[in-house]
Amino acid sequence: MAQMSKEMGHPVSVAALCRADKGRTLPPWETVKAYVRCCGGSVPEAKRLWQRAARAALQGQTVKVPLPRTAPALPFVTEPAELLLAMRDLHLTAGKPTLRELGRRAAIPGTGVSYLPRTTIGGVLNGTRACSKEVLLHFIKACGITRESDVRQWVTAWERAYKREGAASRYTTAC
Question: What's the pLDDT tens digit per position in 5-36?
């Protein structure tokens, strides 16, 4: 996205975009504008929301802005955050099994050793850890995805999200 913003004439660093994406502080308007343009959103609507948040920040208030709660369809996943949303949706669809249950489902038969430790999948699902391809494969299998074509869709989505130039390193170092 940083490269795209540069090509569009509104250069913003990867770190600035990552900070804006986290939503912990109010980013500068120029960062928001570049972000919105890269995503194809409405700049006037974004400016209205940004000004509302800026006014509230000056008054020491917090502003609740509704965020999308659904993941894009797997063929449209291009970012680690979108893959995370898709994984959370799959987890819900699978009946929201506990992390312990997911680990049990991904255990090596007869050993009790799991390919999906609770700390690992917990970190991935809460967004504090990047998802490796192996973890994704064990996770989707534990959630009931076994058909080859479905598994292929998940792997392809993972590759688009993490295999782009520097995507995984941006996720783990810049954010």
Answer: 455 555 667 777 667 766 667 888 888 888 78
Residue 18 exposed, middle or buried by CB count within 10 Å (0-12, 13-18, 19+): middle
The 3-state secondary structure of the chain reads CHHHHHHCCCCCCHHHHHHHHHCCCCCCHHHHHHHHHHHCCCHHHHHHHHHHHHHHHHCCCCCCCCCCCCCCCHHHCCCHHHHHHHHHHHHHHCCCCCHHHHHHHCECCCCCCECCCHHHHHHHHCCCCCCCHHHHHHHHHHCCCCCHHHHHHHHHHHHHHHCCCCHHHHHHHHC
pTM of the predicted structure, to 2 decimals: 0.56
- What's the CA gap between 85 and 77, in Å, rounded? 9
pLDDT digits (tens, 9 = 90+) for 61-119: 665 555 455 677 888 888 898 899 999 999 988 899 999 999 999 998 888 788 899 99
